[in-house]
Amino acid sequence: MLEIAPQLASVVLQDAAPAIPPLSAAALGVGLAAFGAGYAERGIGSAAIGAVAEDEDLFVQGLIFTVLPETLVILALVAIFLVQ
Amino acid sequence: MSKSAGTSNPEYVNARVRSRRAGLYEEDDYRKLVRMSPAEIARFMEESPAYEEEINRLGSRFSGVDLIEYALNASLAEDFEDILHWCEGELYGHVARYLRKFDAWNVKTVLRGIYADTEREAVDDDLIRAGEFDGKLLDRLLDAGAIDEAVEMLSGTVFGDPLADALEDYESSGVLVPLENAVDRAYYELLRTDDLSGEALAEYREFLEAEIDFRNAINALRLARSGADLDPSEYFIEGGVLFTAAELSQLASNTDELVARIRESRYGDALSDALSELEGAESLIGFEHALEAALLEYADSLGLIHPLSVTPVVSYVLAKEREVDNIRAIARGKEAGLEPDEIEDELVIL
Fold first, then answer.
1. How many CB atoms lie within 10 A of CB B88?
2. Tell me, what's the pLDDT at B2?
3. Angle at B192 between CA B190 and CA B196, to 5 degrees
4. Is A47 in contact with B14 (Cβ distance < 8 A)?
5. Which residue of A has its CA nearest to B20?
6. Which residues of B touch A53 (CB under 8 A)?
7. Axis-axis angle for helices B199-226, B284-305 (nearest 10)
8. Which of B9, B19, B20 lies at the smallest CB-CB distance from A46?
9. Domain residue ranges of chain A, discontinuous segments joined by +
10. Listed residue (B67, B37, B40) closest to B54, CA to CA
11. SS3 sequence, B91-115?
C-alpha cells in the first residue's frame, strides 16, 4: 500500500503534465461559451422572427437582440489571450 | 392538422401574439366607435390591419351591420387559425384545448342547421372556422343531409363517441338537446385540468378552473334570476374548484351567500368591484361583464408571470373575443338606435 503512495501523489498533483494543457482548456472554454450563446440565440431568434413577421420595422431591433448572446463568445476569447 | 410532435415554440408564438395584442382597440377607440354610424365603424375597421382584408373581401356582398358582423367573425376565425398554425409540439395541444370551443360551436351550429332544414349558405355564414377542424371536414358536415350522417362524419373527432352515444336518445325523443349536451360535455371534458402539471402549466390550469367557476356562478345566478324551476346542478360543469354541484344548487337560491362565497375565494380581490356592483345595483348583466373583465385581467397577469407559456396566447384569444363582442355590441346597438352612453354600458373594457 505504502509503496504506491508516491505514484498516487504524482497523479493527483499532476506532477508530470496536466491531462488538458492550458491552451486546450481555454479552447474548450470558448467552445462551451459558443454552445451557450447558440442556445440563448435559439429562443431570441425565434421570438425575433415572430416579431418581424408581424411588423417589419422590428427587423433591426430583432437582429440586435438576436446577436447579443454573441458577447459571451467574445468574452470567452479573452481566456485564450490570458493563457498564451 | 395535428402537429403534436416535436418541441414547442412558445417564443415565436408569443412574439406574434403580443404584437397582435398591441394592435387591438383601446378604450379611446371604443369611445370613438360608439359615436359612429355602422358605415363609419366599417370604415374605421378597414383602417386597422386586423380587419382590413375581411372588410375589403366582404364589402361587395354585405353592407352596414351585416358587413361588420361577418368581417368580425371572419377575422376572429382567421386569427385563431393562424395561432394554431404557428404552434408546435406541446404548445399546440394546450392552445387547441382552448380553441376547441369553436369546434363545439360549429358542431352545434351544423346540427341545428340540419335539424331546422336551414340553407347551407346560411349555416356556413354562422360557422366560426377557428377550431381544430379543417375546412374540408366542415364543408362535408355542411353537405350532410341528416343528423346521423353528420354524427358519422364526426366519429374520428373528440366529439365522435359522446355524439354516437347520444344519437339513440335523439332518435327516440326527436329533440336536439341530448346531442347538444353531448357536445358540451365533450368540450368541458377536454378542458379538464387533471393532466396539467408543472409550474407554468399550473397557472394555465388555474385559469381554466377560474373560467369554469365563473361560468358556474353565472349559470347559477341566471337560473336564480329567471325564477325557472330548474335544478342548477344539471347545468353544473365539472372541473371547477369553487363549488360542487350540490353546493351550487343551494347557493343559486340565495344570491347573498353566493356573493359571500365568491368574495372569500381566491378570486375575491380581483372581483371585489364586480361583487359590490352585484350587491348594489342588482344588475346581472353588469356582473357578467365584470366577471368577463376579471377573467381577462387574470389571464393578462398570468401572461406576465410566465411569459413563455400558453397563458399569453390564451389571454390574446380572450381579448380578441371581447373585442369582437364589443364591436358587435356597438354595431347592433347603433342599429337599434341606442344612445352612446347606453352602448358603453354594454361593453367589456379593461
1. 17
2. 44
3. 110
4. yes
5. A54
6. 16
7. 180
8. B9
9. 40-84
10. B67
11. HHHHHHHHHHHHHHHHHHHHHHHHH
Segments in chain B below pLDDT 70? 1-6, 192-200, 225-235, 252-253, 255, 270, 274, 277-283, 350
Q: How many residue pairs from chains A and B have C-beta atoms closer than 8 A?
A: 31
* C-alpha cell, B226: 329567471
CA distances from B44 to A23, B258, B316 (A): 66, 42, 21
One-letter amino acid at B138 equals L
Residue owning grid cell 341545428? B112
Q: Identify the residue whose cell numbers are 325523443.
A: B173
Whole-number pLDDT of residue A65: 94
Select from B7, B9, B11 the residue whose CB has the most chain A CBs within 10 Å, as the one to mutate to test that interface: B11
Cell of A61: 431591433
| Contact across the interface for A54 and B14, Cβ inside 8 Å | no
Flag if A50 and B14 touch (Cβ within 8 Å).
yes
Chain centroid to CA B103? 11
Q: What structural domains does chain B harbor? A: 192-309 (1.20.1690.10)
pLDDT tens digit string along B260-300?
Answer: 777 777 777 767 776 776 666 556 777 777 777 778 877 77
Chain A residues with CB under 8 Å of B24 CB are none
Q: In Å, how far from its chain's centre is CA B264?
A: 27
Nearest to B19 among A43, A46, A54 (CB): A54
Report how far residue B209's alpha carbon sits from residue B124's, in angstroms, rounded to the nearest whole number: 32
Sign of CA dihedral B109, B111, B115, B118: positive
Cell 450563446 maps to which residue?
A37
Q: What is the pLDDT of residues A53-77, one digit of tens each?
A: 988 899 999 999 999 999 999 999 9
Which of B189, B235, B329, B217 is CA-nearest to residue B278? B217
- Are B106 and B130 within 8 A, CB to CB? no
End-to-end CA distance of chain B: 35
Q: How far is CA B171 from CA B118, B161, B166, in A?
A: 20, 16, 9
Taking only Cα atoms into account, the Rg of chain A, rounded to an integer number of angstroms, comes to: 22
